[in-house]
Design brief:
By secondary structure, this protein is of the alpha/beta class. It has 11 helices and 14 strands. The protein has one domain (about 5-20, about 35-160, about 240-315): Ribokinase (UDP-N-acetylmuramoyl-L-alanine:D-glutamate ligase, 3-Layer(aba) Sandwich), CATH 3.40.1190. A hairpin with a 4-residue loop joins β13 (about 225-230) and β14 (about 235-240). α7 (about 185-195) crosses α8 (about 200-210). The radius of gyration is 19 Å and the shape is globular.
Length: about 325
């Protein structure tokens, strides 16, 4: 198993359960409030560790109880947390997550200490970049830090995986051209490309616009519709597993981490996407962010049952 470096955010999530997410100016009654360990970077690092990866994380927390809990939780699944930064001020980042009965969610992030995960901090931890084989990034840390990580990773010939969330209006061609795999959902794809992505044809056109701008491969996560791999001359669809969604909060993070772990384990991109679809499908059946992440054994068990189901269908046909 090769080494994965996750560079990104760590947040404490405040999760509000409700019948329906309120519209602008609307007040609704919530069904419950809970605290959940999150942040897209921490979610992906935790998932990669829980799925059997060799993982180190770079990111920053506050010198507070939230930060201590986040770091302990990552360490509990084998993530190397020895170089996570601690900031006296501001405190650990927080996110307010509204989850409606359907499982859909809406998220507001207050970055806090994540702002100190900057280029200077990353430069001071260059050994982590040199040691790894894969770099997994998101965009809840300063933009200059993301671009530095991409550039430094490419200098060192690392495989770079970017989950562009929250999505900027655009990414420079210089950065896109250095990313090996960019993994947006439909909304992020639309924002990055400036194109609609409501239909399959629109989605493919939007993905190809990113490829024309320099991206090597675009993997679009489509929730209950699975995922799609778009490369220069090809488009490949990957069906989801059938589950009943409870909370979609960390599904995308789980997908990205599972994809990285499978690649690090020697799988092809297609095999890695299939593995990631199963992991993300299991994650939405449970509430929470890191609380929802399946183990490697759970994913493998479901993959075996899926193969058996498909073989039974073919036999009946």
């Amino acid at each position: 198993m090769k080494n994965i470096l996750v560079v990104g955010s760590l947040n404490m999530d405040l999760v509000l359960q409700m019948e329906k997410i309120p519209s602008v100016g609307e007040t609704v009654l919530g069904d419950g409030l809970r605290y959940s360990l999150g942040g897209k970077g921490a979610n992906q690092a935790f998932a990669a560790g829980n799925l059997g990866g060799n993982v180190e994380m770079l990111g920053c927390v506050g010198e507070d109880s939230f930060g201590a809990k986040l770091v302990r939780n990552l360490a509990s699944v084998g993530v190397d947390v020895g170089h996570i930064g601690r900031s006296a001020s501001p405190g650990t980042g927080t996110a307010v997550i509204c989850v409606e009965k359907s499982g859909d969610n809406s998220i507001v992030v207050v970055p806090g200490a994540n702002k100190t995960c900057d280029e200077e901090y990353l430069r001071s931890n260059d050994a982590a970049f040199q040691k790894c084989d894969y770099i997994l990034l998101q965009m809840e840390i300063p933009r200059d830090a993301v671009e530095y990580a991409v550039n430094r990773g490419k200098e060192l010939s690392k495989t770079i995986i970017l989950n562009p969330a929250p999505a900027p209006a655009a990414l420079p061609q210089d950065i896109l051209s250095k990313v090996d795999y960019i993994i947006p959902n439909e909304t992020e794809l639309s924002r990055l490309s400036g194109c609609r992505s409501d239909s399959e044809n629109e989605m493919e056109a939007a993905a190809r616009k990113l490829i024309a701008a320099g991206a090597h491969a675009v993997i679009v996560t489509l929730g209950h519709k699975g995922s799609v791999l778009v490369q220069k001359d090809t488009l490949e669809r990957f069906p989801p597993i059938q589950v009943e969604a409870v909370d979609t909060t960390a599904a995308g993070d789980c997908f990205c981490a599972a994809f990285a772990v499978a690649l690090a384990d020697g799988k092809t991109p297609a095999q890695a996407i299939s593995f990631a679809n199963v992991a993300a499908g299991l994650a939405v059946t449970r509430p929470g962010a890191q609380d929802s992440i399946p183990t490697q054994a759970e994913v493998e068990e479901r993959r075996v049952s899926e193969r058996g189901r498909k073989e039974a269908v073919r036999a009946e046909g």
